[in-house]
Amino acid sequence: MTFELAQRNVRLHLFRSILAAIGIIIGVVAITSMGLLGGALEQSVSDELMNMGNTIIITPAGPSVGDEKAGIDERDIRQIKLIAGRNPTIAFYNTYDQVKVGDSQGYSSVYGVDPGELPPITTLISGRYISGTEGVMIGQTLARNYGIREGNFITVGIGAREQRIRVVGILEDTGFSGGIQTDNAIIGSERWYEATYSGRGKYDQVVITVHNLDDIDGIKDAIDARLNRREDVVNIMDFRSLISSIQEAIGQISLFVMAIGGISLLVAAVSILNVMLISVNERIKEIGILRSIGTQKADISKMFLYEAAILGLIGSVCGGLLSLVGGGLLIMLIMQDISYLLTMHTVITVIYGMIIGTVICIAAGVYPAHRAAQLNPIDALSND
Amino acid sequence: MEICIRLEDVKRIYPMEAGDVYALNGVTLDIGVGEFVAIMGASGSGKTTLLNQIGCLDQPTSGNLYIEGKNTRELSDYELTNLRRDAIGFIFQKFNLIPLLTAFENVEYPLILKTGARDTTGRPADLLRLVGLDGGHMKHTPNQLSGGQQQRVAIARALANDPRIILCDEPTGNLDSKTGNQIMDLLTDLNRQGKTIVMVTHSDEIATYADRLITIRDGVIQ
After folding, report:
1. Prediction pTM value
2. How many residue pairs bridge chain A and chain B with CB atoms within 8 Å of each other?
3. Cα→Cα distances B210→A250, A361, B37, B185, B199, Å
4. What residue stretches are annotated with the MacB-like periplasmic core domain (chain A) (predicted)?
5. What's the total number of domains in chain B?
6. pLDDT in tens, B54-113
7. With a cut of 0.90, is the ipTM above it?
């Protein structure tokens, strides 16, 4: 009966109850949508970074001095490959150079890679892979930016080094993966690169793709012990700490954004508090009657807590459902990929949002309920 | 005579800025089981304060109040609330029904308080018929009922847990004289069935229904 009294009071003051519930709806939508967006961002960045999370990148320790180019030599690479064992290891040349296509010009990465190493780590979208010194391949982004198709010629280099070369294939964008960023790059064979930029046998980078993440430290230590025994020959790095700090940063950002959403929930809680205090004031006489005919203080409290819980539950459930729409819109708007909404994280976030909304609502009802229970029956009865 | 309500030098003092107000100033009174007592007095004489003490809605500042042999001073708020629920029925001048509940539910409510469950015995309907409310009105809420009908519902509610004591505060104060007399006949019937009735009134005519008349003035019984 206590619950029914609460329920009937909500219905009796339907408009006021709806207004109070709208506050909760907005609050829940705010925190939940933000939570959904944060989760989607974190996941999308994780997906992107995962590809490089298992790579070890080895670069020369010393700088190039004059004509003497720094690089990792064949002997060191053999050592590295030995240590890496069955984990795929690729060594390549890398520089930065001018590109001209027709009237437009710009800069791009230039890679020199053993043609045999490319197929396992890249996907061809048109043309063919390079072989020998004839032609280069380019990344999809670069191709799109300059409107290049396979068979077109591009001009690479400046001044004396300038050469026209044919594009034989275009590689699909891979994002930031495997240590080689092919998206906006020109990829030639090792022999072409050596002929163009010299520095033969002085590789700019070695990338090991490690199958088992637990092996990363062992491989790094072994390379360090072997190659950097007397002096630092190579720098060895991996991306685990980078990835975790990026994830942490995104987590903090989404927490911060949720906190901003939380402010609206706090405002909603204040309005629930206000509505409940009004409700208590309006029903002082009723409380007096209930007390005089033998209703315990605890039951009076419960009546108002139920009322807050009804408002909170209705508001939170509506808010939870609406936040799927709100979160979906945000994710569509910012990430253009709705699939990030359809995850377990979404379900958990929405449930959390609803629980937080309901709990805050009930908490807002505690003080009014306490006040109602403490009313003196005689004073309450004489109230008109 | 078996004593039902006993007051020993009961004082109720309201501290005010201008000085203490003695609403009750040393009331000693015994009311026996099955008595019908009318308390009379002018406005501000302390008669309602006296009724509130007996009804355990308020506690005396000093002195002792015994309800059926229990010293109310020794009872907790929880126990006093249960005493109101089980041993005492209230009938007010302004009926004081719960506006959110129907007539039937208003009578059912004290039963639910006691048993913790909705009624299955049909007692609320029996009581409403007993006080003269027909079945058609049982589903109406108080604001759909006339004053007389509301007071009948209030009496049925007061009887819900079969209390030994019924306290009435100006039970006919808001009713026309014909309806008032009907209500008084109802109360007289209840008294004949053995209920102890204490009634506050300022009407001499209504007071004639009682067996005993107590006049109070400035918080003192005359």
Report:
1. 0.72
2. 62
3. 82, 53, 5, 11, 8
4. 17-225
5. 1
6. 999 988 999 999 999 899 999 999 999 999 999 999 999 888 999 889 999 999 999 998
7. yes
Q: How is residue A61 written in tokens?
A: 């320790």
**Alpha carbons A8 and B101: distance in angstroms, whole number:** 9
Q: Beta strands A124-127 and A163-171: pairing type?
A: antiparallel
Q: What CATH number did the domain enclosing B70 receive? A: 3.40.50.300
Distance between CA atoms of residues A76 and B163, nearest Å: 101
Q: Does B118 touch chain A (CB under 8 A)?
A: yes
Residue in the block written with tokens 């930031």: A176
CA distance A294 to B157: 12
Report how far residue A163's alpha carbon sits from residue A177's, in angstroms, rounded to the nearest whole number.
29
Of B81, B96, B108, the CB nearest to A294: B81
Residue positions counted in chain A: 384
pLDDT digits (tens, 9 = 90+) for A49-87: 766 678 888 988 887 777 677 888 888 889 898 998 888
Amino acid occupying residue A327: G
Helices (H), chain A: 2-12, 14-53, 74-84, 118-121, 140-146, 190-197, 216-227, 240-282, 284-292, 297-335, 344-374, 377-381
User: How far is Cα A219 from Cα A54, in angstroms, rounded to an integer?
Assistant: 12
Mutate to test the interface with B, among A2, A7, A292 (most CBs of B within 10 A): A292
User: Rounded to a whole number, what is the distance in Å from the CA of A25 to chain B's nearest CA?
Assistant: 27
Q: Does B22 touch chain A (CB under 8 A)?
A: no
Report which residue type is found at B9.
D
Helices A74-84/A216-227 angle, 10° precision = 150
* Residue partners of A217: CB distance under 8 A and separation at least 6: none
CA distance A206 to A236: 9
Q: Which of B78, B84, B118 sits opposite A293 (nearest CB)?
A: B84
Residue-level pLDDT, tens digit, chain A, 384 residues: 778 888 888 888 888 888 888 989 999 998 888 888 888 888 887 777 766 678 888 988 887 777 677 888 888 889 898 998 888 888 899 888 999 888 888 899 999 988 888 887 788 888 888 887 788 999 988 888 888 888 889 999 888 888 889 999 998 887 655 567 788 899 999 888 888 888 788 899 998 888 887 888 889 899 998 888 888 888 888 888 777 888 888 888 888 888 888 888 888 889 889 888 988 998 899 999 999 999 999 999 999 999 999 999 999 999 999 999 888 888 888 878 788 888 888 889 899 999 999 999 999 999 999 999 999 888 888 876
Chain B: closest CA distance from residue A285 (Å): 8
Indicate the SS3 state at residue B60.
coil
Residue written as token pair 């290049």: A148
Chain A contact set for B92 (CB, 8 A): 381
Q: Residue A372 CB: number of other CB atoms within 10 A? A: 27
Return the residue in B50, B81, B97, B166 with the most chain A beta carbons within 10 A, the one to mutate for interface testing.
B81
Quick one: tokens of A253? Answer: 């950002």
Q: Which residues of B154-181 are buried (b: 16+ CB within 10 A; e: fewer)?
A: bbbbbbbbebbbbbbbbbbbbbeeebbe
For residue B11, what are the domain limits?
3-221
- CB A286 to CB B157 under 8 A? no
